[in-house]
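Data deposition worksheet. Section B asks for the primary sequence of the deposited chain exactly as it was used as input, without tags or linkers unless they were present during the calculation. Section C holds the resulting structure in token form. Section D is free text for depositor observations; keep each observation to a single sentence. Incomplete worksheets are returned to the depositor.
Section A, Depositor: J.P.
Section B:
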Amino acid sequence: MSHLSTHILHGPAPVSYGQAIPWPHQRQAPQGCGWLRCRGEACNEFRPDHSLRSHGHRNKLQASNTDNVNRPILNRGSPGSEDDAKLGAGVAVWFAEDEVYRMWYYANSQASNDNADYPKGLSMGKILLAESTDFVSWKKKGVVISPEADLSSFDSGGLGLASIAFISGDVWMPVFGIEKQAQGKFGKQRLGLVRSKDGVKWTKVKGPGPGGSILEPSPDVDTWEGSALFCPGMVQRPDGSYILYYHTSKQHERDGIKRVFWMIGYATSDDGLHFKKGGPITWTNSVADMDYGGQSGPAVIPNPYGEGYLMAYTALGKEYGPTGFFGRWSTGLARSSDGITWSRIGDQPIFEGQQGKWDEGGAGHPALCLGPDGLLRLLYHGFPNKGIGAASMREKGNLKSIHSRHNHPRRSGRSATTLQAATVDQAVNRPVLGRGSPGAGDDLKIGAGVAMWFPQENIYKMWFYGNSKAATDKGEVPKFLSLGQIFLAESPDFVAWEKKGAVISPDSDLSSYDSGGMGLTGIAFIDEDIWMPLFALEKLEEGKFGKQRLGLVRSQDGVNWRKVQGPGPGGSLLEPGQDADSWEGNALFCPGLVRLPDGTFVLYYHTSKQSKRDGKDRVIWTIGYATSQDGLHFTKCGPITWTNPVAKMDYGGQSGPAVVPNPYDEGFLMAYTALDEELMGAFYGKWNVGLAESKDGITWSRIGDQPIFAGQAGMWDEGGAGHPTLCLGPDGLLRLLYHGFPNKGIGAAVMKEKGNLSDWQRL
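Section C:
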């Protein structure tokens, strides 16, 4: 392989809780006990993997389990950032001297869209930079290339990219840009070029075409290439000539109907500036079902394992698309000895989106990157969430063996007792735990999670509840709810979680209170046992369900659980009142449990009831409690008492009480779901996380009149954050798990400063 071929892949050398019942790690934990986020499934041959961060040298691939990677590695920015509206494709290179990957990607902002700076519906905008040491956890560095303000420039209406090359010691980035004719009006889409020494500071190359472009579409819109050029890639051949790749779209008749098909074209040049079109690339093998609708987004690199070149491309499948396009997007791979005549490597995609994953709508706009370990990595654009995902080759040189999904790393190599706070940017625009892969016990819905740190094992353990499509199809658990089984996951850092499977299942006996599915929101260590109160639904028959009651399970190790036979119907601890018109309605939800210094047990729960507010009947949520001297026979005491008036944040009520001993003072803390005054159907409000404190566990004071944590616009949890639970880490900082909407995953946050209960950041 030539010196050039090596550098085009590797990158150049230049550039370079103080209280009665202590937390488990504040006392002797039960031997072997523990409490527990995420992986992905092999997709054909490339596997997205959640943990490539090495435990030592960065050059060693650290492949992890891959059953639950359900989020992109890069997504839209927080509100007000340059990439808070739409995100396009990304391309990356390893910089050996800096020991870092650099990724360039294109995106636009809500502000620019509102201002009609760029075309609506597209991701074109500015080029931004991000860096990573492991290809998984990326830190955004900001904008490095912006469109020209001069309307005569080919890129005045926005930029995009799909490939990058190292040529003569420079970084060459072909771009596609659209001209802006006036505010909100746009013209032709052409190709241009920018160059850089370090990948940070860029110079736009003045091309010979209109507006400084290097290639434009034909004036005849009826030609094969239509009226726009997209997603360019570039290589320099051994003889010094250049090939510029691009794709275009055109209506053709197939199956008796006119549909839009995508084709890859190329142009050649002796100087890298003046290009002559060569037409569509040539294929040596016939079209496959995977790209029956065409090919787009050519990302061409020198083949690191042989002569010639490799091309990752978007394959549009035979599946008929609703918008006039053929098919679902997946990633194809091809090889060529001369860069012009190409052969598909197999007739199946090397990578595709998966049902139940964030990218279930498709995976396209691929880009290849060679890592320092000699393994190729893949970036791709996932749909429908339109974030950037990653995958890695399983075996060097095996072009059909790629790890399924990269995901957030385990952050290994650092002590788990140290806070692993993620940068509050797009690296955290995803849950820490999502639904399982198809066929898993949690592949349909997951509910809340609760976690604790176990010092003897140096690990966090999380329990969460969820259900499967198979179970709901059979009528075993109710549709539209997350009630089902209780699952276990483990993590050393509260960020990267590994699922361990179901640990508690509903009773098959229909007379049991939990025969129709169960859920949780609280956990406690009492008398060297782990106590977990549950809320569960009785099943009357397949697909028909009855009352929702509270129960209890206990464990010595957090893995093997025994159900406590309560005095209520079906073995329950507590059931709703017989009077459905009482304050608590006809169902009990989300229990929490503590033991007071005098030995009294307090069981918290919430319920819902229609109440008159604003002159209308609305559903209001209320937290209630019950007490017991033995932890088994409970007496209801009514709603908890508040010392301060209702705030806007919980005007619609409070739910999901998660009560823990206060690690910084006497008494207790309660995280709860605060339903604000924003009206949503028959319920009050967007869900946020409120925090309250109490000396006796009965009378509570809100800590401030604002949520301590809320979902954010543009983030995965923009629909709301609720069902919170608290966990004290070994560093003395409280951590928070919450259920995010609309994607309904489990998110995490951490207190910024020990004892400061009002200032939190997402993980």
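Section D:
Residues 1-68, 321-325, 403-427 have pLDDT under 50 and may be disordered.
The radius of gyration is 28 Å.
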